[in-house]
Structure to design on (358 residues):
């Protein structure tokens, strides 16, 4: 991933007003790209998108389910590279609103790809799904990209279906035109500026800032936690590779190193220590609808094909995340905090590359 490549590229980010979309848009702008967006208005309050000042060149407040509006934004922005992040992205919200979840995540993906298949300048498309697309038999093994898709809950199933939609469009329309389209699977990202409901760190920050006790449903659940910049760097590297070699279009896992997956309870202990205050009430896992107990990814394909290399270990990830929230609470600008993390992350990437070359 090089700044020379991204400078001047026209990039469309769907879901640009969300947590990951806001970080990605800022990073792309820092790399010199011309960034446009396609998303609903920010849903959380506060909103990282708002705190960063909008952060894009061309904003489109569009419902991904509105096919005509999606087509109009694609025609207007003429993207060369597309990152599709727009989604209903929460497991528990999927249980509450299953049909809406399928409409957004499956039909919305089809609407975007239908618009892109007639877009004259598009060269590279990354469809972001989730680590939860796999059929999870709780066998205690890390998933690889060729494992069967599944999805016990509506959110997970909708993302698995989006994978099939992307694969169909790749085979039917994009591969014959030498346009690279790949899906990216990651999950359980943390970092400053996430205020969504039903996510571990945002829920913790809200509780601790208000002096309340954080109640945790499944403290023993194991997940592949990583800083938000880790998968975003993977997505950008994937898009750059697709531009030059569309035949590598596959599905790619982006997760932490083996051994870095951790339980909810252990992550909370680290978060509490770095935040400096807070109480936690741990449940026994019996409350609420089904959620996977063990979920870990194998990112060997991304390492081999893309040179993907996780940079921050879990302890550093949690430390930086909680320091971000603490500093923002104490009055430091979100933009400065995000840019600081992006520059530190990029600097470490350069160090890793130099060590490999040496």
């Amino acid at each position: 991933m090089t700044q020379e490549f991204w400078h001047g590229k026209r990039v469309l980010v769907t879901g640009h007003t969300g947590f990951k979309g806001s970080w990605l848009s800022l990073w792309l702008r820092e790399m010199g790209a011309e960034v446009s967006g396609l998303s609903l208005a920010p849903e959380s309050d506060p909103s990282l998108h708002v705190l960063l000042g909008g952060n894009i060149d061309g904003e489109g407040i569009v419902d991904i389910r509105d096919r005509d509006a999606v087509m109009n934004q694609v025609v207007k922005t003429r993207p060369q590279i597309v990152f599709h992040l727009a989604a209903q992205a929460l497991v528990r919200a999927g249980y509450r609103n299953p049909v809406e979840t399928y409409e957004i995540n499956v039909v919305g993906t089809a609407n975007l790809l239908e618009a892109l298949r007639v877009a004259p300048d598009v060269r590279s498309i990354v469809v972001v799904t989730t680590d939860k697309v796999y059929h999870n038999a709780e066998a205690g093994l890390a998933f690889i990209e060729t494992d069967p898709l599944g999805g016990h809950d509506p959110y997970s199933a909708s993302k698995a279906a989006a994978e099939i939609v992307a694969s169909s469009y790749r085979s039917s329309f994009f591969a014959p035109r030498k346009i690279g389209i790949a899906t990216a699977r990651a999950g359980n990202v943390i970092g400053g500026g996430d205020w969504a409901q039903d996510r571990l760190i945002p829920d913790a920050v809200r509780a601790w800032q208000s002096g309340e006790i954080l109640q945790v449903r499944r403290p023993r659940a194991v997940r592949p936690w990583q800083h938000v910049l880790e998968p975003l760097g993977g997505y950008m590297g994937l898009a750059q590779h697709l531009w030059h070699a569309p035949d590598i279009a596959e599905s790619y896992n982006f997760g932490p190193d083996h051994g870095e997956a951790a339980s909810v309870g252990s992550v909370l202990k680290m978060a509490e220590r770095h935040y400096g205050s807070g109480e936690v009430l741990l449940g026994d896992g019996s409350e609420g609808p089904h959620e996977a107990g063990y979920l870990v990814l194998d990112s060997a394909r991304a390492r081999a094909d893309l040179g993907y290399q996780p940079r921050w270990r879990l302890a550093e990830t949690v430390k930086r995340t909680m320091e971000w929230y603490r500093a923002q609470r104490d009055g430091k600008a979100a933009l400065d905090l995000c840019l600081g993390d992006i520059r530190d992350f990029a600097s470490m990437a350069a160090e890793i590359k130099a060590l490999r070359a040496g």
Remarks:
- The chain has a mean pLDDT of 92.
- The longest strand covers residues 180-185.
- DSSP finds 13 helices and twelve strands in the chain.
